[in-house]
Amino acid sequence: MKISGREQPLIRVLHDESRPDLRNPTRPRPVRVYLWAPDPPRTAPPAPLVVVSHGTGG
Questions:
Q1: Average pLDDT for runs of 10 along the chain of length 58
Q2: C-alpha distance from residue 14 to each of 3, 33, 40, 46 (Å)
């Protein structure tokens, strides 16, 4: 898959300070964000798309 000239998404790791990591409870839980940014359409104004996951392993 190739979007915006990139074959891979932009990946960021955030940390949820309110919940412990499942593998190491002394650290905050990491939350990975994968950003795919499509090229803007030529005929219509761009519209945002937000996808939210409901939880771990769900």
A1: 61 91 93 77 73 68
A2: 23, 8, 27, 26
- State both tokens at 35: 């950003």
User: What is the rounded distance in angstroms from the CA atom of residue 47 to the CA atom of residue 42?
Assistant: 12
β-strand pairing of 10-20 with 28-35: antiparallel
Long-range contacts for 49-54 (Cβ within 8 Å, ≥24 apart)?
A: none
Can you name the residues that pair with 51 across neighbouring β-strands? Answer: none
Contact at 8 Å (CB) between 14 and 34? no
Contact between 37 and 12 (Cβ < 8 Å): no
48, two tokens: 């945002």
The whole-number pLDDT of residue 24 equals 93
